[in-house]
Amino acid sequence: MEIQYVYQKKRSEFGRQCMFSDKGPDLIDNYPSNKKFLHEYILRDPVHQGTQFSVQQAEHQLNTMRAEYVNNSMCHVEGGWPKDVNTADEEQTKRYRRKIEKDEGYTHTMMQLCRNMENCILQNNAINIYQQYYTDVEPTPLIDKSSARTVNVYQDQYSITRPVTHISWSPDGGTKLAVTHCNLSFQAVVVNESKHSFIWEVENPNVPLIVLKPPTASVCLEYNQKDTNSLVSGQLNGQVAVWDIRRGSEPVELSVVEQSHRDPVHNVLWINSKSGSEFFSSSTDGQVKWWDVRKLSEPLETLVLEPNKNQEDQVISNAMGASCLEYEATIPTRFMVGTEHGVVISCNRKGKTPQEKMVSKFACHLGPVLALERNPAYLKNFLTIGDWTAKIWSEDCKESCIMWTNFHKAMLTDGAWSPTRYSVFFTTRTDGILDVWDILQQQKQASVGVKVCDEALRTLRTHDLGRLVAVGNKKGTTYLVEFSENLASSNKNDKALLTAMFERETRREKILEARNRELRLKHRVRSSTILDDQKEKEPSEIAFVDSYVVSAETEFYQIIKEETKDTKAEEEETIEPDVVPVHEEPEPEPEPEPEPEPEPPKPEPKPKESKKKKK
């Protein structure tokens, strides 16, 4: 609907003309001010009522003419192109480029520009762009400096201190710390030695929150990730115990001695099950047992760590003792066991026979494997700690590790990955030093080395946030160490770089393994061929290679030689009187009887010649 309307009207219809004249104002009424009402006036502030005196309009707008600006650009990556040339079409750009190069103006212009460009090129080559003009200026560090500090110290509450054997963080954000103390020295009997373990509040290092009182000393203690009040521990006598801190400091359940391990239980880990009540344990007796908290009278399943044996032929006395245990909740049926022989066994619980359960083996260290943990981001790669080195392995490479550290002067005792920065792992040493390794920065030496104490460090455990690490020594003291932010946070490119590094090293080891297998096969074929040829030529020398056989054979031939020599001498003595009467000429009497001439050398006996032929 239009708001304007045009109508026409004749001049005669306008009416009479209006005649206007000027006139002064007329006063209609006057109200002078009254000062008496001045004191009664109240100023209202603020005023909540508004008044609009202008005429209300249905629609009203006011606008001015404005200038409109447009931004236009041109792609100058390879020079300006006309609009009719599609830069994405390679053939079209080539045709246009050839067309321009044939132009006479192009050649003339390039000849003029090349002189100046050549001068600039020669000038740039003559200038050292890396020259340091100011020697006093300190260069900007490319990597943030790493630092560490000791936050709290938790000590054993008894005069006879015991080594720290295991540390566990509570799943409620790491507000509590469970620490076990146990003397694992062989046949160590200490009078009045305590068997207690402690649960500490992180903020209160003076008095433990709870004192756990087991019947025998606890070697390891682990929190249930689904229940902050439930714990499970492995005892020195081979039993496993279940704890509920709401019900006191005594264990709630204990396994039967007859069904338990025969040696101390070094590791217990909870299993990611539906009920949240299953866990498994390992010991140096060579057994891995699965348990249920609701029924500790007997284990659910038992695995004897004796590879290459049937279940009927397995003997516990021949099994390899388990020194450490690894379990990842994202792959619930698989786990890894580190043994006292330096071998890591990769296992699958779904297998029916021992051969199917123990899938593969890795010869990792010269001594026991003291720590074993998968990388939190790359589950195929795992870290092992043993003897004097730390090694990183890949499940695809069975014969050798993909990365390793140099041999240290002091033995390594424990190690763990950082849960937040995937390229960082920690190691503890017997000289009291805690090393931090960042394999993206350097592999030859540790990024940070912290001298925590003078005693040997035994165990460590990292916090879920990555900055805190709890470390225990052999004197029973637990140290809480905090690291700088750059050791706990990852950059946006760290994961891609670490992935490329692991893949590159794994590929290199696979190539080396294939080459070694090829060389071993060639050597085996060559040695078997040479051995067959030697057996055909000299069967006696090749057949009797044992030293006992050779000595017996030599002694036998010596006896035969001596007996043959004696027999030959006796035969010559019996033949000599029969030969003398054959000569009938008598000997002259006046001449004295000549002395018998020495016998000529006897020929070698026939058995000796047969011996040479035999050889």
UniProtKB/TrEMBL annotation:
It is found in: Cytoplasm, Cytoskeleton, Cilium axoneme. The keyword rRNA-binding does not apply. Keywords: Cell projection, Cilium, Cytoplasm, Cytoskeleton, Dynein, Microtubule, Motor protein, Repeat, WD repeat. GO terms for biological process: cilium movement; outer dynein arm assembly. WD repeats lie at residues 258-294. One of its GO terms (cellular component) is outer dynein arm. GO terms for molecular function: dynein heavy chain binding; dynein light chain binding. InterPro entries: Dynein_IC, WD40/YVTN_repeat-like_dom_sf, WD40_repeat_dom_sf, WD40_rpt. Residues 599-608 have a biased composition (Basic and acidic residues). It comes from the Eukaryota. Residues 562-615 are annotated as: Disordered. SMART domains: WD40. Its main location: cytoplasm. Residues 586-598 have a biased composition (Acidic residues). Belongs to the dynein intermediate chain family. This is Dynein intermediate chain 3, ciliary. It comes from Popillia japonica. The lineage of its organism: Eukaryota, Metazoa, Ecdysozoa, Arthropoda, Hexapoda.
